[in-house]
Each structure stands twice: as structure tokens, then as C-alpha cells.
Amino acid sequence: MSRWVGDRSLIACLRLAAATTGSVVLLIFVFLVFESWSALEALGLRFVTDSSWHPASDPSEGTFNLTPMLVGTLAATAGSMLLATPLALASAVFCNFYAAPRPAQLYRRMIELLAGIPSVVYGFWGLVVLVPLIRQIEPPGASLLAGILVLTIMILPTIALTADSAFGAVPESYLQASAALGLSRTTTLAAVVVPAARSGLFTGVMLGTGRALGETMAVLMVCGNVVQTPASLFDPIRTLTANIALEMAYALGDHRSALFVTGLALMCIVAALVLLTEAAAERWTVEGP
Amino acid sequence: MLLQESSSSAPRKRPAPTGAAFGLRLGLLICLLSMLPSAGCQSPSEDPAGGTVEETVKLVVTGSSTVAPLVSDLAKAFEKKHDNARVDVQTGGSSRGMSDARRGLADIGMVSRSPKEGEDDLRWHPIANDGLAIIVHADNPVGALSSEQVEKIYRGDIESWHSVGGNDAPITVVNKAEGRSTLEIFLGHFGFESADVEADVVIGDNQQGIKTVSGNPDAIAYVSIGTAEFETSEGTPIKLLTLDSVVPSTAAVRDGTYPISRTLHLVTADEPEGWVAAFVDYCRSTEAHPLVEGQYFVPLGG
CA-based, 20 to 30 A from A89: which of A44, A166, A179, A191? Predict the structure, then answer.
């Protein structure tokens, strides 16, 4: 009897916890839509057709084009993913299959430390070290490239650690079977380990992308924040997150509402990303080895 | 209605502008969480003088991040004088300061410029003067510019330091983000629109501007003279440019010869009474002058 009561209360607690977690996302979405509504109503398509982003609290006075910032965000995220994913996967492979146990453990701790450094520290380092370096190649220095490099370092540990545990979860028997078949290390990795760890790798890449999309402080400090569609890696850009951070405290009326639209756009990108990854992972797993 | 209320009180929960940058999701979460308590904890926007002497009164002051450090100092001194007074200073920009004062969300707003047309519904109380200095890196050989040259640089008509007597290097134009009153003052002096500015870097606060310029020998930016003087005295490699033959200094702001200056104000919705009046009067008194100077601003009539 008492066990039954215990079970019932556990289930109730779990339901409550799950409902809370789920409703937070929902509430945030509702809140964003609610706050964006007046700007969406007043401006509508002007978020993509206006000449530039020079907001004013009165919609008839300002211009509100979000697309350069959308492009900036996607470019910075894509660039950092392209750099960080191979690096992180290589580091996880090294850690799991090539390094001796002790150095591997030490290496893992270091990556964890890297993951724990606050973003503002990366941003500050980027501003005083990276930006002047890039400026020597091509002024002004604060640029898409600086943003990509800082983001790469920031998301590297996220992907590396997830990939590391995904590789660690590959059953020992797979490796033994592969060894028994006389497969080389390269073949074992490519044909056995990576396919078996695929879903974990996807999760890691998705978490990394999410972090790159949402990162604010570091990109705010190194990207230059000029609202323009970048023509080269050396052009300054402004990301959606930086736009909110720069202007939110100073915005009133429809300008403020337009910043919530910025947040809404960001949330939609993240949602699309989650769906895409889900779909891709499902397809690949079904077609798996 | 609950959402309506929370949205208007959310800004008060937000810390300094830098705090707003901690992460989009965190910020939103805070906004959401603030829904719950906001119904219960109303700020004491009513005239606090009605309370008995023993009762602690709390003044809420919000607005310009330029004025906030000064008012924080003044608030500390004021609290020391009056045991039962608490002054809560929060930043959020001049426009927020005015809007909070109008809507009664704050007792006093801080505004880092003079009133514009249509803003005389508020009571304006000047507390100090400040100037905007054009700054470059200390290694930049250029030491003086005319207003016309600065305007051309910011409009993108002059793109190399060579054209104004400096090195043959492209100019990195540092501008402020939209909505900052520092930007408004700057544009107002030179008479052009923010859409005309061809910026290479857009910054948030003064500190970011100083970091950007001290790390880039070809950058040009504009910041509060007080902040710039303080940084040069600390050894930061920046230099204040002479503008139209006037050397920028708090002294030049004081005697009115420096061309780009502004008056920092406190604003209230009505004629201040009770504790609000006491605090405003304290900020404007000669007693407050050392604190004003300590923040590298210029006391009024001093």
C-alpha cells in the first residue's frame, strides 16, 4: 500500500516537472508572439522589404529590415560549424581511440574547462587579441571572420564532449568484432564506430549550432555590429542576438516590439534546426548499417 | 492583462545594459519569471513623504547609463545622510528614464541630454554638464580635426587618415548603436542622420568604444569627455582630438568653449515633493559638486 502511494506521488511529481519544462518553451513562444504583435501588425513584410535597419519608436519614421542580420547570424553559425565540427570530432576520436588512458583523461578535463569559460571572456579575448590581428590583414578587424573564430572555440568543447560520450557508448563488442574481422583502425572508425554513434554525434552538432546561434556577448564584442549583408569574411556584421542586446535597453514602442520580432525569428531558426536534425537523424538511423 | 503588466515592469528587473546581453534565452526567462512577482511588488511610486520618519522610503531612479554612475554615488551619499532613505538606481537609457518617470514606474528618470520639443510635460532638473570628445589611438599622428572633417569621416567621404594629415591607412569609423542619446548629441551637433553614417564598428557603451579604439590605431570614436579623461589618466592608449581648435577637457566644457556639450538631467513627472524633492535638491546642491567632479563631469555653475 505504502509503495503504491509512493509510486503515485512520484508519477505526479514527474508529470508536474515535465509539464513545467514543456510549458516554459510554450510560454516563451506565446510571450514572444504577444510582444511582437504590434510590430508585426504595423510593419508586416517591411521586415524584409525595407531599405535598412534604422529603427524608430514610430514605425513611419524608421526602417526595419531584418534580413542582413539574419544572413549575418546564419553565416557566422555556418562558418563556425564548418570549422568546429571536424576539429571536435577529431578530438573526440583521438581521446577515445588513440590516446593512452591518462593523457585522454587529462585532455577531457581540459576540454571541459574550455566549455566552462564564460562567453564574455572569449569575447574580451577576441576584442583585444583576435580583432587587432585580423585588422593587420584587412581593416577594420571586427568582422564576420572574428565572430566565426570566436564561436568556433566556444562551440568546440560542446561538440567534442558530446561526441566523446557518444563514442564512449559504442558497445565494446562492436570493436572486438571489428578487430576479429581484421579491419584496420580507419575502417573500424568509418564503418563501425561513426555509424553506431551517429545519433549522439547529431545531438552534439545540434547543441553546438544552437549555442552558436544564441551566443550574444562574444559576437557583440568582435563582430562590429554594422547592419549589412556581408560581402566577404572581413566585413563587419550584426547578428540577431547582438541586435537585441545592443538596442533592447534603449528601445520604446514599435522599436521595442521589433526587437521581439528579432527574438521570434531567432526562435524560429532554432525550431527549424531541431526539426531538421530530427528528420536527418531519423532517416540516417533507419537507413543505418 | 497579466502579460500587459509584466511586460511593462520587466525592464525594471533587467540589470545594466550589459546584463541584457547575458543570453537571449536567459533574458526571456527572466522576463517570464518576472510575471509572477510583479503583481505583488509595486514600486513605491507614490509620494513617500507621507510616511512617518522611522519608515524606510525607497526611491526608484532609472534611465541613462551615462548619468547612472553619478547618481549611484549621489544616492550612496544621500543614504548616508538619511538613514531611512533607500535609492535604487537602474540603467536603461534616457528614453527609458523619461518613459518610466511618465508612467510612474520610477520616481525619477535620468536623461543625458536637454529636453526636446514636446517633452516639457516632464519637470527637468539639470544636475551636471558633460562634453563629447572625439578620440583616436594615442599612436595616431592626427591631433586635431575640424567639425567638417569629422562629419566627412562619419559620412564616408573621407576614408583615409592621409586626407586629414595622418598615416596612409583606412579610417575605422566607430559609431554608437541606435537609441543612445550620445549618438543623438553627436548627430545633432554635426546635423546629419544616423542613416548617413558609414560605420565600420557599432558599439554599445563607452567602455566598448574605448577598448575598440585602444586596440586599433586607425579607429575614431566619440565618448563622454569625462570617461575619456579618466581613461587617459589611467594610461589607456587613447587621445582626445582637438575639435575646431578647442582642446576637449572638462575645463573647456565648464567655460562653454567646447562645441559638443550636453547637460545631464533628472526628470520627474510632476513638481517634486517630499523625498523626491529632497533627493533632487541634494543632487543639485553644492554639496554634491565633489561627487560630480569625481565622475569627471562638470558641476553646474561651478
Answer: A179
